[in-house]
Input
Amino acid sequence: MLVLDELDRGLIHALHVDARAPFTLVADVLGSSTQTVVRRYRRLYAQAGLRVVALPTPRSSGTHQWFVRLTAATRSAHDIALALARRPDTSWVRLTSGGTEIVAIIHTAPAGPDAHALLLRDIPRTAGITAVSAHYLLHTYLGGPTAWRGRVDALNADQEARLRSGTGTAETSNTADASGPAAFDDTAHLLTDADRLQLSALREDARLSYAELATATGTTASTAARRLAQLRERGALFFDIDIDPALLGVTVSALLWMQVAPAHLDTVATALALHDELAVVAATTGPTNLVAHALCRDAEALHHYLTRRVAWDAVTRIETAPVLRTYKAAATLRSG
Output
């Protein structure tokens, strides 16, 4: 497996601060040459599965998000997970719990005859699925625009500031500050068809040049640049990094389905969002009302986290589901 060094980690962190920062600026901030940074980026892209992607915020895209848990026969779970991962309306497709449960985020339209076709028709009719539970995502405390801290621990505050000031896009950063998860306003702009076309291209590669973006969208480079700037200013999109967490020292990944007394839900979730071990914290509907994604160094570290840091009276139940395989990350299909 590829071993990341300080420069690799600095590059990943820099891309979280500003996914479209010029490599010349990134190199200057990291104290390296542009050629070296470009070479490292290409190596991470080819050998580590690094992808820089742009995603619409849910309210701007006009979609709802559901955590869906599917129980399937072991012999069919792989094929079902792979089929879900290939769909454009899914993300974070994972195999958990001994290979019999598939967990995915499904994006649905809020209304219309086919708004919930996948949930109500396609999945229930799929051979091999024995149980389905859907949890509507109510609020994200950590994740999405806010990066997991395990990927943003290489740069200091001055370096982050230089990256932001270099392009004037501090409002688009998806890095949380020291006080907690970054607030993110996704109510300002509903995407147009032209916006969606541009985001479709950026979903594949958020570092496309304006000329490449113009070719992909059938417009001009100046129009593509102006439209992207407007989307960023309005908070209609955010950037994310897809990379295997194992390269960052993670050997144990688990989803934590928690039941929290409603009166304490916001307090508990806000506190959890500050934990370095967690990459996602979200409130949902269902018998468990809080889900978190833990990334730990090893099993002992996960045990320590569960018994020492989440042992609160307000958390009345925790179901821990180890992640065995990720078929799709934020937008990227995983081959491994």
About this structure: The radius of gyration is 20 Å.
